[in-house]
Amino acid sequence: xxxxxxxxxxARQPKAIQHALHVLEEVARLGPGVTAQQISTxxxxxxxxxxxxxxxxxxxxYLVRLPDLSGFALGSKVTQLATLVPTAPxxxxxxxxxxDLRGRVRAGVHLVRYDGGILxxxxxxxDFALSDEVRISRDxxxxxxxxxxxxxxxxxxSMSSPIVPGRACLAVPIRDDRGALVAGIALAxxxxxxxEPAPLLAVLREAAERLEPLLA
Amino acid sequence: MSALERAxxxxxxxxxxxxxxxVAGLDRRSVGAVEVLAQSVSAVAxxxxxxxxxxxxxxxxxxxxxxxxxxxxxxxxLVASTITQFSRRMAAPGGVSAYIARGLGSSAALVGGVAQxxxxxxxxxxxxxxxxxxxxxxxxxxxxxxxAPALWAVALMLVLGAGALFILVRGIRRSARVTLIVEVVxxxxxxxxxxxxxxxxxxxxxxxxxxxxxxxxxxxxxxxAELLVATALALTALVxxxxxSTLGGEAKRPLLxxxxxIVWTVFVSAGLYLLTGYAQLTGIDxxxxxxxxGFFPVDGVTASLGMPWLGAVxxxxxxASLFACLIASATAMTRVLFALAREGLLPRxxxxxxxxxxxxxxxxxxxxxxxxxxxxxxxxxxxALWTTMQWLLLGAATGYLVAYFLACVAAPVFLWRIGxxxxxxxxxxxxxxVGVAVILVAYLVVESTGARAGAVWVMVGVLGATVVLAAGxxxxxxxxxxxxxxxxxxxxxxxxxxxxxxx
Lengths: 216, 503
Hints:
The structure holds two protein chains of two kinds. By secondary structure, chain A is of the alpha+beta class. Chain A folds into two domains: 3-80, Winged helix-like DNA-binding domain superfamily/Winged helix DNA-binding domain (Arc Repressor Mutant, subunit A, Orthogonal Bundle), CATH 1.10.10.10; 92-215, GAF domain (Beta-Lactamase, 2-Layer Sandwich), CATH 3.30.450.40. Helices cover 44% and strands 19% of the residues of chain A. Chain A has helices at residues 3-12, 15-30, 36-43, 47-59, 92-104, 133-138, 144-150, 191-195, 198-215; strands at residues 34-35, 63-65, 71-74, 108-113, 120-123, 157-160, 168-175, 181-189. In chain A, strands 5-4-8-7-6 form a five-stranded antiparallel beta sheet, with helices on both faces. In chain A, helix 2 (15-30) crosses helix 4. Chain A is elongated and about 60 Å long. The termini of chain A are far apart. By secondary structure, chain B is an all-alpha fold. Chain B has a domain at 23-92 and 123-383. In chain B, 72% of the residues lie in helices and 0% in strands. Chain B is globular and about 75 Å long. The chains are: A alpha+beta, B mainly alpha. The interface between A and B is large, with 48 and 42 residues.
């Protein structure tokens, strides 16, 4: 069989899905910026097959082509392959404080915990949905609540969202007696309001103080 | 799936990204796959050409054969396949000129951009005049002898131009829906009527139809030169298939929808031409076809069949299809202007968009002014509508073919640069480049001896001057901005672990 038709067949057989998952796995293993040639060499896969599968995965947005057009990275859509474990709802006393704050400010109010250094969304504001729950819980660089995890001594973190232009977030920490970070509460608002944080910080800190004995 | 699970649980940082794409401002990811297809199909306007192309081919070359159409479809598929090598990898509102920039660099991209703007601009004008021509002809059918056609034509052009401007300013979602609906109806009407006509013909005289079917596929009676010229003419009816690429900034899942739209447009258009061509060439004595001149060779046929109303229905769907073609070609033109402005090559105002609709309003206003003014001037100077359409089509076809040729040359270089070249894509691109070059030269040589010789020399002059300009720019003006071929890139939100900063 000539190589061309062999490639054609392989990419169309049911095995194609398996191959596609191998390619996805290989991009994850070799890291962002990996090229099509590196994938094909590393998997021992014919180049034309590798290119076809990479293009298919990019078209479906499980992979992205980086701005230089030759490197690949995982697309945000890959997280749809992962399952999210739902967290238990917070105690009623905690919900009361959070709901009270939601009634007082025109902004999204989100509460998270940091057990084991991992951000866990405890109570996301149903009226102001988080831009990307999976992303925010996995990647501390994309949210103010993640920023608290990165800077253990911060009194508050203000950040304009790198995910959704035109959104910003203010987060304050909730610590235990020894000063260890336990939880965080955040307001999602506009960059303009976040730039003048004093009035919002005052209500946030007040809520954080009321939450501290309930969470720490 | 261990490496993948680990990567999802703990994303590796991917720096060098931004929260916004370089083509931000356009209504990003808003146009569905079907509308993207409609953009390309409308720009080709198969319903407008389906009835005229076989007749024009028969009239010009004296061949009652479907072979030129098959050959043209083959060459177009080679080009389309090559262009999808780009559109599967980059979503660029500049379309083909951006592709050329990634393969061959700034100078070739400048020539390609001018050729592309001529292509889209002239087809938009052709479609505007064609809509007017068809509407007037329809009015003549309904209400014979309504006088002063030149003034009526100018007034209609103004009205239709303003209508198109209104639709374009309202935003891509709405304009794409308009072109989709119009194109489905007009292509559907023509395909259905043709199939019905073929059914009648086969039912009444099957042996004659069998003979004629054999004749239209018989290569023995066609000379090589005739075939070449006829193929060139058939190809002019397929140009525009790549215009979906200019929705790179606006399509949902652009890397999937655009290449599919490009290839499917070739199948839909060429399929319709083959169907109507077959019906015309087998159903009508070729002598009648050759006698036909102008835009509606079928008028005589439908009248002689005792169904003049059929001609009116066909004209109505042709008018609608040409209006959709105006919208689609003007859309493509504005996106190219937008992209060139974002490159820094044109005034920055052309790269601005309206916040609510994401429409590049300045580019739309400029395009529509130009598209409406040129045909009006031509008519006021005394040119007949049909004559105007013919020279516009010649200019447009030349522009498209030059852009296609450059894209075919650029593709293997682009693939090699990003390390994804293969022998098959190279062979297809090379065959496409040779096919387009041969057809373009043959077309211009034949036209340069005919009534439109002036238009040929104007086109050669304009493109020649652009080549000189591009060369001069490359040699002497190093400070000029490099044409990068601006394209939509993944934002921080699109990439797992995406970050700002140096890559």
